[in-house]
């Protein structure tokens, strides 16, 4: 196979391209994007919001923390940051526990998709809790002072 | 999907054109899905990763620095989310069991309905055999080919972002994997 002439090489390449084309056809039939998922992505356009500031994920214990040997079921620790506001969130089986820094009250919405989410408030110390953990992708929309901040979408 | 189109569609979507967003979803969903499938997540995890990727893309839409590279952005985001899932599970959930073939037949696409016709049965059979042999390939080849077979075909930049492999190594690896698949099919036909 290694001493193929140039012509055979070209034939071989075109045969491999055909095979890739057949694979593409097979994937379209046997493993397509589920229609319901595609629809969710179309509806996600509603999440496009130029007025909100994004609090970027700057720490995720899943990738940034050194695992503790033998420790199981450790809570996921997340930090989101806008540069001026920091949101620390702990995800446990009981729900979310959060802290705004600098401490300040806020109205918070827990989003799980393009539609309106559950509402809660952060107290004057900037603390907030939810009574159930997110079950899929989530983001927090915070209204504090005159500003709207949304944390980066994340899968809990 | 044409790269200049992607850039223009992203800019239109930023300006409020919902049809442009829909076109982006149509054109790049198969790429995002292929990355999820290449990492062999469970259905539930895979669906969540897919959604997270699109939610985050919508959120960052007006801030994407290189709109024409939105495909790479999506592929790379999908890869990182997949790796997080794998890390949190500390194990891989295989999907190479017969269940996959059963499951995919539930959600009937127009293409599938077409295949139901009798004259297409042979072609359908051939695609299934091809898929079975593809599923038996080693992890590296299976991952690469699953992303390459997204429709429309991804660019090598996007494949690189999807799998964390150098652009320069994709071509040679692609050839080797397709040859391996062809050998499997030939062996199957001969037996």
What's a quick, concise take on this entry?
The complex is a heterodimer of chains A (156) and B (191). With 156 residues, chain A is an alpha+beta fold. Helices cover 24% and strands 35% of the residues of chain A.
Write a structural description:
The complex is a heterodimer of chains A (156) and B (191). Chain A is an alpha+beta fold and 156 residues long. Chain A has 3 helices and 10 strands, in the order ααβαβββββββββ. Chain A has helices at 6-30, 35-43, 61-64; strands at 53-60, 76-81, 86-91, 96-101, 106-111, 118-122, 127-129, 137-144, 147-151, 154-155. In chain A, strands 1, 2, 3, 4, 5, 6, 7, 8, 9 and 10 form a 10-stranded mixed sheet that branches. Chain A starts with 5 loop residues before the first helix and ends with a strand. The mean pLDDT of chain A is 90. Chain B has 191 residues and is mostly helical. Residues 91-106 of chain B have low confidence and may be disordered. Chain B is built from 10 helices and no strands. Chain B is 74% helix and 0% strand. Chains A and B meet through α1, α2 and β10 of A and α2, α3, α4, α5 and α6 of B.
The H/E string of chain B reads HHHHHHHHHH
Number of strands of chain A: 10
Low-pLDDT regions of chain B: 91-106
Mean pLDDT of chain A: 90
Keywords:
A: 156 residues; alpha+beta; ten-stranded mixed β-sheet; elongated; B: 191 residues; mainly alpha; 10 helices; globular
Lay out the secondary structure.
The complex is a heterodimer of chains A (156) and B (191).
Chain A: H1 6-30, H2 35-43, E1 53-60, H3 61-64, E2 76-81, E3 86-91, E4 96-101, E5 106-111, E6 118-122, E7 127-129, E8 137-144, E9 147-151, E10 154-155
Parallel strand pairs in A: 1-9
Antiparallel strand pairs in A: 1-2, 2-3, 3-4, 4-7, 5-6, 5-8, 8-9, 8-10
Chain B: H1 3-14, H2 18-38, H3 43-60, H4 70-89, H5 98-104, H6 110-116, H7 121-135, H8 139-148, H9 156-163, H10 167-190
Helix pairs in contact in B: 1-2, 2-3, 2-4, 2-8, 3-4, 4-9, 8-10
